[in-house]
Amino acid sequence: MGRSSSGIVAGLTAAALAAVGFLGYQASATAPAPSAHEAAAPSAAPSAAAPAPAPGPAKPNAVPADSGTGTRVVYSAAQKRVWLVTEDGKEPKTFTVVPSTVHPKPGTYLVNSRSNAVTGSDGVPVEHVVRFAIAEGSGVVIGFSARVDGKLPEPDPTRKTGGIRMSRADGEAMWAFATRNSKVVVVP
């Protein structure tokens, strides 16, 4: 072979290596990443069975233990959360809320009035209003509601308001669940 044929072989070899490298890169870029279990798995089988994992912490959105029993609405201003708990033991519907500036004291209340649509104490049109308390000392009525415009801003801290706000979809769920005389449990 002459110089020209060895140059051709070298060129073809370089092209072949480049093609293999490119195909390898493409394959690695499209392959799924290994799971944490696969990445941490030892290369050899362990000689003894691994111990069972310790139980994890309670579900972060679990119904508070001190919220009583039976069908009830559970509200926590500190957690900014509501639970709609049924007596049948099914997983309760839970969702976040925006607390009002005036909070009810922990305890058990009954839904005392409802309004399909009104203007809230902050001057905003609201719907699915479910009232359950009057704050001691201020006379502010406290209840759940959803803004008609769907927004969920923090309330003006300089105003005394009792509207615990939720999304419109959650407001509909509350409206269907918390009829007059339904139990509302307020927890810290």
Distance between the termini: 89 Å
Main beta sheet: 5 strands, mixed
Number of helices: 3
Averaged pLDDT, please? 80
What order do the strands of the largest sheet run in, or round the barrel if closed? 3-2-1-9-4
Global shape:
globular
Structural class based on helices, strands and sheet pairing? alpha+beta
- Percent of residues in β-strands: 25-35%
List low-pLDDT spans. 7-48
Radius of gyration: 31 Å
The helix/strand series, from N terminus to C terminus, equals: HHEEEEEEEEHE
The count of strands amounts to 9
Helix fraction, binned, reads 10-25%
Mind explaining what this structure looks like?
By secondary structure, the chain is α+β, with helices and mostly antiparallel strands. It is 23% helix and 27% strand. The longest helix is centred in the first third of the chain and has 28 residues, at 3-30. The protein is globular, with a radius of gyration of 31 Å. Residues 7-48 have low confidence and may be disordered.
Structure summary:
The protein has 188 residues and is an alpha+beta fold. It is built from three helices and nine strands, in the order H-H-E-E-E-E-E-E-E-E-H-E.
